[in-house]
Amino acid sequence: MKTEGIVISSIDYKESSKIVNLYTPNGKISVNAKGALNPKKGMLGFITTGNVVSFVTTDTKTKTMTEYQLEYSVYNLNQSIEKLKAFAVIIDIIKEISDDVNHEKCYEFIKKILLSLKDNDTKKVLSVFLIKMLYVFGIAPNLKSCVKCNNMNNLVSFNTYLGGALCNNCSCLDYDRLNLWNEYYYDKKDIGKYSDTDFNKLLDEISTYYSYHMGINLKI
Hints:
Layout: E1 2-13, E2 17-24, E3 27-33, H1 44-47, E4 52-57, E5 65-72, H2 81-95, H3 103-117, H4 122-136, E6 155-159, E7 164-167, H5 178-186, H6 199-214
Antiparallel strand pairs: 1-2, 1-4, 2-3, 4-5, 6-7
């Protein structure tokens, strides 16, 4: 059967082959790309990390790629070091996805993010991706009630260490990015339509959240 996937890594295998690890609508799989190190085989597109490929494999225990087509190339990002760094963070996060999630829905979202990276603000794309992925990892922020007193009214700020919103009685901040977290977490729209902000500060908050609640140190 033909399937589609995002190349997340590859390792040398035997003399001229590579084992290619991909994230697909069915989860993570490993595929043997026989002769991949031979330039004449034309497999560079299949073994390049970040490429989106459609491919056919043998129906055996060790899946072997028999044909493929390049759907999207990471080389589209080569004009920007910042975009390549963001792309690397996205790949690292994909590697952390567990087996028991809705891979089909998750895959389509990640693919949309990768395609959006080329023509949108890099830090905005990365922020949307990282905040929405918190749901996938099961550490979603509590944005509906105060994490201290459970008050559902007058929520005014967001606390990364407590993992959610604070009401005006529990917060010591006059202003915070709570509205932005709500928008980035819940809204479903084109990347360019999300609100702008000081993305350096927002990514600092997101990095703290991942580090404190999941033990992942983002390389931002």
